[in-house]
């Protein structure tokens, strides 16, 4: 019974994905037709080749990689720092801070976009990597803090104390004992931040206007608007999903571990 | 220095980045909502709550609010049904489980543009693959993206793309339910349904609480998915509040009203969250 359900779900999920992949290697006359088949009759790489030549597609790809990587690094550093402090140094404001963090979650990206647009314009950072990276980090940091906070909470304080009783300073405790334990959590949080930035559309489309700086999602939607080059759109989309696929393969283990480690400590 | 002063300083420093990143844009945008600011001109005038009054009197605001609310609730409901079911299934042992677990999460990590473009193509009235297949099964529709069916298609894509988040949360939560409870229940002869209602659901309570809240917030706030798929159209058939605010700001260049609209969105969500916390306590 369970098996049937799983097969159904896997099918419903895979069908569109494989359809997209197969379409990306179909010649145009097999895509733009009233009677398309699932499998290609003739396999061609023309869409990939054309896409690479027609628009600054490679540039979009590189831009996305740069932005996403920097967002990932920035987000993990900021949220790890904040989460560590929040769990290791109790102060009166803690409850308020955690509640504020949840509040930040409710900010719609539209509001953030408008706010960022106005502020960055004042600062002259519109249309730049820096502005976009700041914006996307702002979006991912609250959730990263929440993830890491849960994880750090699960690392018992006795560990710190035991190390310090044995004569280690706070810094040494942090580096030698806590950090190694936290690596899986950093990994899963970093993956989350990277993927979220890679996929991000709203900020990227509003804050960046110069074509050579645009990221991949924006590039794809530009092509989709022109409406004509379905084959190329599908080819680029397939390529755009590759990082996500790779990251999923690596992060699968760590993701579930990371989430439950913080939640359950019996 | 004292440990407590050190604590305060450290906590404050950790927020040193958070605050400018998040608070400044939001506060600035709220302040603009009380001005009559057009485009990016430096001139502005304080006009109090006039922007808000204009919005409340705008029919499009209410229709966007209505659509956004209905759509997010419907989408989240389905996401939960599909997501929880998948998580339960993935928790069982079976051959190929690792593959199933991996592929089920793919829709969630796809860029929204890709998911949108993919489904727009699949349901294209002329050469959409899925559309053709459905037609051979007898399901004929003039267009999946017209005024009548666009909301439905939009919901479908939203469920397909985001149910894995629920699956992830529930799967993680299931790890925390002790197996002994199930065993004891099975010994007592409890059926699957009873075990689900009396052991699984209570055990998942805190996870479901957070996941539900997050998904509702995120769906209500969703801009990119409906925008890329339908731009809120045809006409206003799939326009939700974020799109409404965006259009005011970047198409009508009415910064004042646009920021007012997004502030209203935030207020609605805050109010909703407070109510949510209250209800869940019961």
Descriptive account of the structure:
The complex is a heterodimer of chains A (266) and B (282). The model of chain A is unreliable at 262-266 (pLDDT under 50). Chain A folds into two domains: 1-44, no CATH class; 55-263, MetI-like (MetI-like fold, Orthogonal Bundle), CATH 1.10.3720. By secondary structure, chain A is mainly alpha-helical. Helix content of chain A is 79%, strand content 0%. Chain B has 282 residues and is mostly helical. Chain B has one domain: MetI-like (MetI-like fold), CATH 1.10.3720.10. Helix content of chain B is 74%, strand content 0%. Chain B is built from 14 helices and no strands. In chain B, helix 3 (59-91) packs across helix 8 (150-174), helix 6 runs parallel beside helix 12 and helix 11 packs antiparallel against helix 14. The longest helix of chain B is centred in the N-terminal third of the chain and has 33 residues, at 59-91. Chain B is globular, with a radius of gyration of 23 Å.
Write the layout of secondary structure elements.
The complex is a heterodimer of chains A (266) and B (282).
Chain A (H helix, E strand, L loop, with lengths): L1 H23 L3 H4 L14 H9 L2 H32 L5 H11 L4 H15 L5 H26 L2 H9 L4 H30 L2 H6 L8 H11 L3 H11 L1 H22 L3
Helix pairs in contact in A: 1-12, 3-12, 4-7, 4-9, 4-11, 7-9, 7-13, 8-9, 9-13, 11-12
Chain B lengths: L2 H30 L17 H7 L2 H33 L5 H8 L1 H4 L2 H11 L6 H8 L13 H25 L4 H9 L4 H12 L1 H17 L2 H7 L10 H10 L4 H27 L1
